[in-house]
Specification:
The complex is a heterodimer. By secondary structure, chain A is mainly beta. Chain A has strands at about 5, 10-15, 20-25, 30-35, 45-50, 55, 65, 75-80, 85-95, 105, 110-114. In chain B, strands 2, 5, 6, 10, 11 and 12 form a six-stranded mixed sheet that branches. In chain B, strands 3-9-8-7 form a four-stranded antiparallel sheet, with no helix packed on it. In chain B, strands 1-4 form a two-stranded antiparallel sheet. The chains are: A mainly beta, B mainly beta. The interface of A and B includes residues 97, 98 and 105 of A.
Amino acid sequence: NAGVTQTPKFQVLKTGQSMTLQCAQDMNHEYMSWYRQDPGMGLRLIHYSVGAGITDQGEVPNGYNVSRSTTEDFPLRLLSAAPSQTSVYFCASSLVNTDTGELFFGEGSRLTVL
Amino acid sequence: AQSVTQLDSHVSVSEGTPVLLRCNYSSSYSPSLFWYVQHPNKGLQLLLKYTSAATLVKGINGFEAEFKKSETSFHLTKPSAHMSDAAEYFCVVSGTDKLIFGTGTRLQVFP
């Protein structure tokens, strides 16, 4: 029972480098989202998608890009990494909208930007 | 706009004593409210949810929360803490196509 799978679990980047965090779910969930977690700030929504081909911005979208070409996958791209993007990133999915649905989380990707 | 405020960043209890984690919410309409738990180096897991049915909601591992509209509160309680309850707890309110997280309360349980 895989659920939500994130890769890589750890990554170190230099300022200016680009990379993609991968997220895949095998539960046929329509809703997928990316959060970042920073100490004392809870989780903040970066981008989300309510279905294949549809994406929208969350609270902190700057410096990040997403696409949703399939129901299963929702990659998060860092275009030009900055030290302020050092964080733990979580991908989460839900069967339906977030109003009543339960979000299922991956185990996180810890990113350090030097 | 929807928001939540977790009133304590850290709570410490002894094993076997009651747990109270406080959360106030703000919403322009009748909200859905959730508590999530995060154990160290893990993702978040749903503990319980309120979606305008019974105001007293029971969750996993003996936790429960009461929705009080007059006080705009959704506090999380457990009668008797266990060492395995040590974790970070997030109060969450639903927005349009998104969940809005509080800043978290770290629960420590001492033997």
